Amino acid sequence: MRPVVLIVMDGIGISEGEVGNAVLHAYTPNLDYLLDSCPSIRVRAHGKAVGLPDDGDMGNSEVGHNALGSGQVYAQGAKLVGQSIETGAMFESQTWLGLTQNVKNGGTLHFIGLLSDGNVHSNTWHLVSMIRRAKADRVRSVRVHALLDGRDVAAQSALKYIDELEELFLELNDENFDAKFASGGGRQVITMDRYGANWAQVERGWNVHVHGKGDEAWWSARAAVVAAHAASPTIIDQDLPPFVIVEDGEPVGKIVDGDSVLLFNFRGDRAIQISQAFETTGHFEHFERGHVPKVYYAGMLQYDGDLKLPEKFLVPPPKIVNTLTEELVKHGIKQFACSETQKFGHMTYFWNGNRTEKICENLEDWTEIPSDIVPFEQRPWMKAAQITDAVVDAINSGKYGFIRANFPNGDMVGHTGSFHAAQIGVSAVDLCLGRVMSAASRAGATLLVTSDHGNAEEMLASDGSPKTAHSLNFVPFIAYTNELEINFKDGEFGLANVAATIAHLLGLSPHHNWEVSMI
To answer: Would you state the torsion angle of the CA atoms of residues 360, 61, 303, 417, taken in this order, to the nearest 10 degrees?
Structure first.
């Protein structure tokens, strides 16, 4: 059996356009060689191919790695939630009843989440539907703690979503119902950290949402955003400073004992830490929380099934079974997974079907390279060299039948909107790709190179403004080997076809539930 090595170049898609294409304008001799000289195919990494509602929906790392690791297309995030709202199942759930009944005697129902319709972490129509239903269910007080996007949507689009919600408040508010903004800030500044990379970010969000403590006090969310844009005209919404809404000198939406809190994001990675802050009893090691209010806390989904976090949630997540890891374990194939902190969970948790723990302790080795806590545009090479060291060592060890790794640069640096930094990030990945190619060739391994979605290849919007969101572009799937003749089938394929392709190369019969092999 020849080993198979899979490299995920996160956020590096395919675009023929030259303007704003940091992949095309990066120095990439190794990727150029692979595309010019090796068998390759373009695969879908967005929309229905990864379980999202529509082909106009951008892919993301969560659904991309679910598809890569499971070999199947599961209804994901936005689609799951949308179905639950449309059928009414959400509002009949015990969690929704708990959220609303808990505040019938005077408490407030708080909604925390990303104010965006990017369909990556959230969608504003979910929030609007829940606020309308809250009024119908005789909730009297609603507060919204808005995390501002500019990443999965246009870079400076926060006012669009704020204004839409303010119009809803004007429509609904009366003597029996009071809804308003309570706090907010950019998603990269407060609340939405992931993988424990920057707990200070979560602490800022906790203090703003829960205690009503922030650097800026404003009379409206619109005023806060307008002032921030005026002070820094090129600022991306994800980097907007935190704010608290006050009336008569007091925060309008502190979270206090007896309230209900719903985190309305459906994607798990950036929802786990704030959920831990709400649900951890006793000592909390990551920051000083002050008074922890006794609230009814829930998530849109359960963000970590193994940790049962949060305990209460509105929509059951997809039950992903028969993953590639499970099949390889059945055949006794030892596996190695690696990335730096920013994408380590994608190579492990999401890859293994939303499981925190290993499928088999003896047959899975995981290596996490700690990420630097600096703005990605300041260090766009990130930890690519250290990831490569680990992958090359794994190849040279001869212990593994399957090795997988993620280079986050194209995605994380692409999200900053810095074109030149993204060029450097892509070039860093390419430099490291050359080392992996050499190691794979020496070991007689088959190297597969792909991506989970596009980003760095499309960094300018049609109006010339920075584009920080993922793209709708296809991604490459390349096979590099000196040992085998590989021919790809004709047809259209997606990320879910990768698992069967890997099994095929390992001499195994793909699971009957999987999408077909591409070779």
So the answer is: 140
The pLDDT assigned to 496 comes to 98
The neighbour count for residue 250, using CB atoms within 10 Å, is 10
Q: Which residue is associated with the tokens 């990066």?
A: 26
- Residue 121: what residue type? H
* CA gap 437, 466 in Å, rounded: 33
Q: What is the pLDDT of residue 469?
A: 84
Q: Which two tokens stand for residue 280?
A: 């951890």
Task: Tell me which residues are annotated as active site.
Answer: 61
CATH superfamily of domain region 4-75+319-505: Alkaline Phosphatase, subunit A (3.40.720.10)
361 phi and psi angles, rounded to 5 deg: -60, -35
Q: Domain residues of the chain, as ranges?
A: 4-75+319-505, 78-315
Sign of CA dihedral 81, 84, 89, 92: positive
Nearest to 241 by CA among 223, 263, 259, 254: 223
DSSP string covering 60-93: -HHHHHHHHHHSS----HHHHHHHHHHHTHHHHS
b (16+ CB within 10 A) / e for 473-511: bbbbbbbbbeeeebebeeeebbbbbbbbbbbbbbebebb
The alpha carbon torsion through 199, 344, 302, 322 (nearest 10 deg) reads: -170
* 78-315: CATH topology: 3.40.1450
Tokens matching residue 352? 């293994």
Give the SS3 label for residue 458.
Answer: coil
Q: Enter the pTM of the model.
A: 0.79
Which pLDDT value is given to residue 304?
76
**Residue 204, Cβ density class (10 Å: 0-12 exposed, 13-18 middle, ≥19 buried):** buried
Which helix (H) or strand (E) segment holds residue 196: the answer is none
Q: What is the pLDDT of residues 131-169, one digit of tens each?
A: 999 999 999 999 999 999 999 999 999 999 999 999 999
Q: What is the pLDDT of residues 379-436, one digit of tens each?
A: 999 999 999 999 999 999 999 999 999 999 999 999 999 999 999 999 999 999 999 9
